[in-house]
Amino acid sequence: MEAMIPMVIEGIERIFGAMRCLDEHKVLLGGYVLHDEADHWWGNANQRLGANGVVITWARFKREFLTKY
């Protein structure tokens, strides 16, 4: 499973490219593709990382996701 995680991120980034997704939308859209435990993790991480109105970048999302998984 761990070997698949970078492939998940790469797949999401291919979708971003095809959609011409703006940087400010990547975290929102990236969060939508998560399921089960990863979706639960992101709900908690999003609250923690985005506290006090901090903007979460796609780079930060990837770093946190890859650290967790």
Describe the structure.
With 69 residues, this protein is an all-alpha fold. The protein has one domain. The chain is built from four helices and no strands. It has helices spanning 5-19, 23-32, 36-49, 58-68. It is globular. 10% of the residues are buried. The mean pLDDT is 90.
Number of domains: 1
Strand coverage percent: under 5%
Radius of gyration: 12 Å
Largest sheet: none
Q: What's the helical proportion of residues?
A: over 70%
The computed structural class is mainly alpha
Tell me, rounded to a whole number, the average pLDDT.
90
Silhouette: globular
Helices and strands, in order, run as: HHHH
Residue ranges: pLDDT <50 for 5 or more in a row?
none
> In DSSP terms, counting alpha (H) and pi (I) runs of 4 or more, how many helices?
4
> How far is the first residue's CA from the last residue's CA?
9 Å
Number of strands: 0
Protein name: Retrotransposon gag domain-containing protein
Organism: Trifolium medium
